[in-house]
């Protein structure tokens, strides 16, 4: 199923790390995530940005440098329906939307990478000493933090049997204020 395609668990690589690894700067939060339909700005906001904000808020990691890493599935013959990598044109649209809207998260668009286009820049001119880059802080697991959880966006009648967002008004308001501040707007000031 599509849900099983998104199952993930870390792989412990103790033996391979004896040769060393690179560490992201202190205060950087590595955030691997799978984008589900960022070809639509509404999905980008509620299925990517809201869960990212929510998990950072829950673990008190807001305020650090965020390094989002869009995970591209490798365990299936083709991308999931509606995802960025389904077609070349959807990938181009996703990249354009991420570039335009990442400042709402306080992220410079040039920092955003996927597992297919990650880069390691060695600034001292030496050759890479390891293929591993680690972070002292990280967060993952956004699925149930979306605006719909396990629901299918209103496609099926059971989607209307319960509300996934009951009591989340303060989170939505905090998310709004966070995004406004990141682009230099005062959320308490009328426009």
Report on the structure:
The structure is a single chain. This protein is an alpha/beta fold and 191 residues long. Helices cover 26% and strands 10% of the residues. The protein is built from 4 helices and 6 strands, in the order αββαβαβββα. The protein has helices at 2-5, 41-58, 88-101, 169-182; strands spanning 22-23, 28-33, 65-70, 113-114, 133-134, 137-138. The strands form 2 sheets. It has a 4-stranded parallel beta sheet, with no helix packed on it. Strands 1-5 form a two-stranded parallel sheet. The longest helix is centred in the N-terminal third of the chain and has 18 residues, at 41-58. The N and C termini lie far apart (46 Å). The model has no long low-confidence stretch (mean pLDDT 87).
Low-confidence parts = none
Cα separation of the termini: 46 Å
Task: Compute the average pLDDT.
Answer: 87
- What is the overall silhouette? globular
Strand order of the biggest β-sheet: 4-3-2-6
User: Treating each run of at least 4 consecutive H or I residues as one helix, how many helices?
Assistant: 4
The count of β-strands is 6
Characterize the largest beta sheet: strand count, sense, and whether it forms a barrel: 4 strands, parallel
Beta fraction of the residues? 5-15%
Give the topology string: H per helix, E per strand. HEEHEHEEEH
Quickly give the structural class.
alpha/beta
Radius of gyration: 18 Å
User: What is the helix content?
Assistant: 25-40%
